[in-house]
Amino acid sequence: xxxxxxxxxxxxxPAQAAPVTVTLWHSYRGAEEQALDQSLATFHESQSAxxxxxxxxxxxxxxxxxxxALPRGHGPDIFVFAxxxxxxxxxxxxxxPLDAHLVPGQLNGYLTETVEPLRYEGQLWGLxxxxxxxxxxxxxxxxxxxxxxxxxxxxxxxALSGNGRFGLAWETGNFYCHAPWFFGFGGKLFHEDxxxxxxxxxxxxxxxxxxxxxxxGVLPEEVSGALVLSLFNQGNAGMVISGPWxxxxxxxxxxxxxxxxxxxxxxxxxxxxxxxxxxVMVSALAKDPAAAFAAASFLAGDESARIxxxxxxxxxxxxxxxxxxxxxxxxxxAAFREQLATTTPMDNRPQMRNVWEPAQLALRKVLxxxxxxxxxxxxxxxxxxxxxxxxxxxxxxxxxxxxGAAAALGALAxxxxxxxxxxxxxxxxxxxAGWAWVAPxxxxxxxxxxxxxxxxxxxxxxxxxxxxxxFVGLANxxxxxxxxxxxxxxxxxxxxxxxxxxxxxxxxxxxxxAFGLTLALLLNRPTLRLKGIYRVLLIIPWAVPxxxxxxxxxxxxxxxxxxxNGILESLGIEGVAWFSSFxxxxxxxxxxxxxxxxxxxxxxxLGALQSIPRDLYEAADVDGAGHxxxxxxxxxxxxxxxxxxxxxLGTVWTxxxxxxxxxxxxxxxxxxxxxxxxxAYRWAFARQDQYGYAAAYAALIxxxxxxxxxxxxxxxxxxxxxxx
Amino acid sequence: xxSVELLxxxxxxxxxxxxxxxSLAIEPGEFLVLVGRSGCGKSTCLRMVAxxxxxxxxxxxxxxxxxxxxxxxxxxxxxxFQSYALYPHMTVRENIAFGLKxxxxxxADIATRVDEVAKMLELDGLLAxxxxxxxxxxxxxxxxxxxxxxxxxxxLFDEPxxxxxxxxxxxxxxxxxxxxxxxxxxxxxxxxxQVEAMTLATRIAVLEAGVLQQVDRPLxxxxxxxxxxxxxxxxxxxxxxxDGTVSVEGGAASFRSSTGSLRCxxxxxxxxxxxxxxxxxxxxxxDVSAAKDVPGLVEAVEPMGWEAYAHIRHDxxxxxxxxxxxxxxxxxxEAIHFGIDPARVHLFAAxxxxxxxxx
Lengths: 724, 359
Hints:
The structure holds two protein chains of two kinds.
Chain A: H1 3-9, E1 20-26, H2 30-46, E2 50-56, H3 59-69, E3 78-82, H4 86-91, E4 119-120, E5 123-124, E6 126-132, E7 135-139, H5 150-160, E8 166-169, H6 175-184, H7 201-216, H8 225-233, E9 237-242, E10 256-259, E11 274-282, H9 289-300, H10 302-310, H11 325-328, H12 331-339, E12 344-345, H13 356-368, H14 373-387, H15 398-424, H16 428-459, E13 462-465, E14 468-471, H17 475-481, H18 494-523, H19 531-543, H20 546-556, H21 563-570, H22 582-610, H23 614-623, H24 627-655, H25 658-665, H26 676-685, H27 691-720
Parallel strand pairs in A: 1-2, 1-3, 8-9, 11-12
Antiparallel strand pairs in A: 3-11, 4-5, 6-11, 7-9, 7-10, 13-14
Chain B: E1 4-13, E2 16-26, E3 31-36, H1 42-50, E4 57-62, E5 65-66, E6 77-80, H2 92-102, H3 107-120, H4 136-149, E7 154-158, H5 166-183, E8 186-191, H6 194-200, E9 203-208, E10 211-216, H7 218-223, H8 228-233, E11 240-249, E12 252-257, E13 263-266, E14 278-283, E15 288-303, E16 307-314, E17 317-324, E18 335-340, E19 346-349, E20 354-356
Parallel strand pairs in B: 3-8, 3-9, 6-7, 7-8
Antiparallel strand pairs in B: 1-2, 1-4, 4-5, 9-10, 11-12, 11-14, 12-13, 14-19, 15-16, 15-18, 16-17, 19-20
Helix pairs in contact in B: 2-3, 2-4, 3-4
């Protein structure tokens, strides 16, 4: 019996002549999107009362778009998302509970494990579509039989490791991939009272386990998803832990198998990965709840499930779809189905989102060998406390509104006064013409610069949690400047980040000017041939988009596979773990940015050099000056008027050079190489959308740079005076 | 104070020869002016002496010593540039002191010398100013001061007065002459202005197309130019040149212009010129007078106040005549008769060399 048809019957009478449109948001791509479109086509063919309007949104922005749009009623009627955000959204009142709409027995059609994760505080908030978890992929040529216990697995892996081959590979620094071991060793995430439970023995044992494997060389270093894939495809990884998305990327030559994860020998518990349950949720503000539910029911129903399974290769939640041999016969899908029994649903409480950063910190610390497993766990705990800062107390906007009103009145008064002056001088028409000419640029500046600036400043007076804005006045600024929750000289403290940023700016600019000036001096020689070619070559670093440069250099600095360590090792020097300590990671960042930035200084210096009259050098020659003296007394002083503004500009750009710091070192180790701007970014986009706090950070950066501009324009003016 | 010698110096830039076999010997304490048209190679010669250009071949000696391989700072020369080349970011005092500082003189000595030079050039009140705050004449004096302060063996001037206005130029000329008298130094001066050359030089070297035409004292050059080019270059307004032939009848030589309309007796037969050979007659404007000989038409008149130069068109070409007194009142379009003083003519052979001068 098609359940969704039943649901359709609950549509209110009178039947509408025009079809009801239900908007659907999702982030499917490729085969999954094809499957969705096919399902929707089937739906539209079989009935005409409801039309589902699907919109694809990139995965990394879907959550924040939903968070901002749903409360305002701009969001979709139904949407597809993983279950883990349900807690926060339900708490914020963005979702509609579905228990009342359910047809009796509707839930029996789903695999049991897929229903519970969609519950929060006793109510059901979504219908299950598909599930994802991790499983063990193995290269049959290297590992003929998949291991059943962790001891077996480690033994097989040890035998395979060496000479550039690794027995095991997974994204070791990512807590999602570490979770199977975390839970397998008996660790748990939260205590009863909601505190993070990293210090439990099971957690620490899991950290020690991977740390040991890394030290032995069974696991590779600094693993990214791309590295895992390339190792497996080259036949250099015996076993890989990954999810269903991996199957599509495996090279055809590799004869691979998929098996459930082994049992942890020391505890007897299975390695239990996180279960990501993808469901379709209904918005609390859906215009036609019954129609929305009917549409959702169809999507989660048997027919759609079969299409999604066969065309989209999803591990679907509907039981009946597994009768189709296309699903049950697929070894990868079958393995994930088997793994389902030993998964743990990702905790959907709001606190869960705060776990990732501290967990990553702890993992990376133990993998680097920076700390023991206990030490790493404790560091993780401290980070958790730091980022789950308590909401500041609500404050009254009255004073600020009054101030704002006064400022606005003052501005208005000044404007009126200048208007009356213009009128008195009889220059109204001239002034009006002037304003008409300026208007387009003024509007553009206003909209693109002033308005966002004002909005940003306003945001800094609020605190944002899970869609709720609370006015807190200057509390954010107070928290930042008082360095609450972290010592002033620790990463995450404003002062620490400021110190790193100043160091970063100074180091970069010195190198930019040194290289740029030297190369300009070399290029300026009249006897140099092929000048044109050199100039083009030397501009290339500047011309290449800087995120490509950043990713390239990050690869160069990789500990195991990077070219730089390769060169060092060929010279007999041991490879450096670049991103494992502050100074080496900082050095890597500076190298990249220096490479990026010297062409600008070079071009400025070249231009300025060519404007120095040649007979000044001749006069200096006759006066008896040598090379260095000519440089010091003629070249340098006459370069200053051009160089100083360039340096001042460069200072501001480098101070805010987000791309390089974020992409090359990523703040490693432990956010110590983060500069102010990347720190602000993390508060906004990686620590549960604390937009207000991040806006306060941005406001402080602005004030710092404003002060710097004031000082520097004074310097520039006195340098300008030198030019006759 | 040192001598400067150029021995068969050649210079070419790429394939283009700019200085062709110039040999010049400058005595210590002499004020030698290198004069010629634009592009004749005079600045290049100067720069080769300074060491700012390398000679393609030939030898350059200062004080008797070969200096071809020495960089400028080891040649102990002082140079004043056409554009002054003052260091814009240094005060006048610092500009003058720069060379001394480089030679690591003690500060007290530097201060004394700077003050001395400033007094000599009347720059006392300007020592704390920057070049951009000075007038052209003041800047030129600072440039000279910078050269003088170092007390070099040779001073080199590269068209230093070209950027100044006429009145200032006259004033600076006399100051330069005074400076030379006071310092008694060897000075090599390049200019395209032959009036400057005539007034400042102890000797003038005339260059044309990279070849030295004549080196002599100013009046010698004026009265006895070695070739047609020098004759036409020195003296303002320029010497009148008329083409024609020489004929000798009896013992008397005479000149006849190619058109036949102009005849002039010559005081003696020119040496090395056969009768009938092509020659050029040269006569200065003041040696042409309003006489009854040759008819002409006044085309232009340049009144100079006390005299006038009339440009006359006649059968054999054009001529400039210097008129004074009542005759200066002649007007354009008037017919006029003029005559040439045979005792005052020069004669140049077909190859340009002079074969006859006035007595």
